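Complex record, two chains
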Amino acid sequence: MFILIVGCGRVGSSVARAMLHEGHEVSCLDEDPESHARLEVGLEKGWEDLGGQFTVGAGLETDALVAAGIEKADAFIASTDGDNTNIIIAQIARRRYSVPTVITRILDPLRAEWYERQGMHTVCPTRVAIDMLETAVREGAPRGDAGPSDTDGSAEAA
Amino acid sequence: MYIIVVGAGKVGWNLARELLEKEHEVTVIESDRRRYLTVEQELEHNVSYGDASELWVLERAGIQRADMVIAVTGDDEDNMLICQVAREKYEVERIIARVNNPRNKPHFDLLGIKPSVSATDLILRLLEHEVPEYGLVHLLDLQEEQLEIIEMLLGKDCGVIGRRVGDLKMPEGSLLISVLRKGKGFVPGPDTVLDVGDEVLAVLDPGHEEQLKDLFGPGGGNGAGDGGG
């Protein structure tokens, strides 16, 4: 698969490395040339030496998207730090370039939920964190405190 | 009419002021705290603090009952998203989006965000109108109607100078609708003879600009009207 990842922060760069390790062709696009260094964290060779591609540019720039290979992409991941940017470029990838698989990271749960209902494939880290925290609190609360739960001491812990 | 303006920059603030003067109900949404506090001194309860790309902020501003949403922030992604959500989620009947970078205009079109207004574009057109050396000037694009209106200034070397309008071989799908001569406009008849300095207006189906440019450009019009001669 040819995978284009726009936004090469902590999330984007980790996904990029994992996909490259699995033998996919991976191309990254980021506004910040410095994010290239983040890609190479923990790698024994350079990103390009391992077959990766890196382009400097904004996700909204048509030229940059084309240079990064959007026209031949099988999968597109929008993982910049801006929800709105991700939502817009994902739609461009889908509608203009007909990329078969488009995944959008949206931090705001409300926007993620609505766009998901519109048929967008979204990943909402905030939603995941909320669910995990809620589960952790429910499961962990009775045993989480060192003191016995049926004494007055539990009130102080709250 | 209830109008929500997103972005209290120079454009948004002045727009809100004008709309309030015209007795519309207006809420301006601004996400920068300091800017909000400045604008709030004048617009008071008509300005609301928050990031309008968050749905609850739009809902708090009453987007469900808004007749129009105008997104004029300095960020094209925000303007596109806000207009898209306004129209598709909240079914706001009319939206207007500002295009900051003209290169993003195709994205607005792709997402069906219409109309979208680009200041650069407007100034460029104004400039072309004031300085018509560029030849053919687009005055109006009626996208829905599939028509364009353009203007051409006839120079000395123009092939059609001294010719009767009736003898011009106008491309199919185009029509000469007006001639501006010495500050006065009139509708040309078949016997109107074109002169140096005339500005002619034509309405045409999109895609015929080149043929018109050939006809009205330098040395153009040769061979036109052969049938009449």
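Note: Chain A has one domain: 2-143.
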